[in-house]
Design goal:
about 250 residues; alpha/beta; six-stranded parallel sheet; 6 strands; about 40% helix
């Protein structure tokens, strides 16, 4: 990579579907920008460099970070976007023995942030996609025991696992923002809450939404206007564009 004409380098997870895919549409149109995406399988995405990444495996996270550092060749990351998210309906465990929602949404991203933060450029940006479900009754976690989240007991609740993992994302962003190196390099840390976004598939559907989504969106917007603003349903395009903003 030429240092005479440095590019704006973006490293991103969760760019193959949902709001991440919409964000990518905006990012690849920006001039003098290089985008490195972590994704499972052998994918090819026009306008981006795709490196293997399986967030359910901490070994894969470490390998991805090493591949990114090798590709940088001394350059710096301008934006590190940790956007991927998943919700598992049952108590599934990763190869490392952790509950899957916890490891994919939080633990893998925490590790990736710690591995790549030293390679963030001065005045760079770390962006972690969170969710306001962590504060929404009855889903909101009443306690936050990392060991119990990683190794849940028999009364595992998939509906609570996702909000708890998103709260971990938020707390991670807040803790990183207090680090001396982050302050000295004027790195911006953002915990991005996309709000209720239709068609992402996190609700257990296919992700397309179809007729049901077309019916629910105006109803929820009406209710949000007069009663609960949290129920306003954004489109994936709106949420993705917000992720891509510099």
């Amino acid at each position: 990579m030429s240092k005479a004409n440095p590019k704006h380098i973006i490293v991103m997870t969760g760019a193959t579907s949902g709001i991440g895919a919409e964000a990518l549409k905006h990012l690849i149109t920006q001039s003098n920008t290089e985008i490195i995406i972590g994704a499972r399988g052998n994918r090819e995405i026009p306008g981006a460099i795709v490196l293997p990444l399986d967030l359910s495996s901490l070994e894969s996270v470490r390998s991805f970070a090493e591949a990114v550092k090798k590709h940088l060749n001394g350059a710096k990351i301008n934006m590190l976007v940790l956007n991927a998210g998943a919700q598992f309906r049952s108590d599934q465990r990763s190869a490392d023995g952790f509950e899957m929602t916890f490891v994919v949404n939080h633990l893998a991203h925490y590790l990736l942030a710690r591995l790549l933060m030293p390679y963030l450029a001065e005045e760079g940006r770390l962006e972690i996609t969170t969710s306001d479900t962590h504060g929404q009754w009855p889903l909101a976690p009443t306690t936050l025991d990392p060991d119990l989240l990683a190794h849940p007991a028999e009364n595992f609740s998939a509906m609570r696992a996702y909000p708890a993992s998103k709260l971990c994302n938020l707390l991670t962003a807040r803790s990183i923002a207090t680090l001396d190196d982050v302050k000295q390099q004027h790195i911006t840390v953002i915990a991005y809450n996309p709000g209720l976004t239709g068609g992402t598939g996190l609700g257990g559907g296919s992700g397309s939404g179809g007729v049901g989504l077309a019916i629910m969106r105006p109803i929820l917007r009406f209710v949000s206007f007069f009663f609960l603003h949290q129920l306003y349903m954004h489109t994936q395009e709106q949420s993705g564009e917000a992720v891509a903003e510099r």
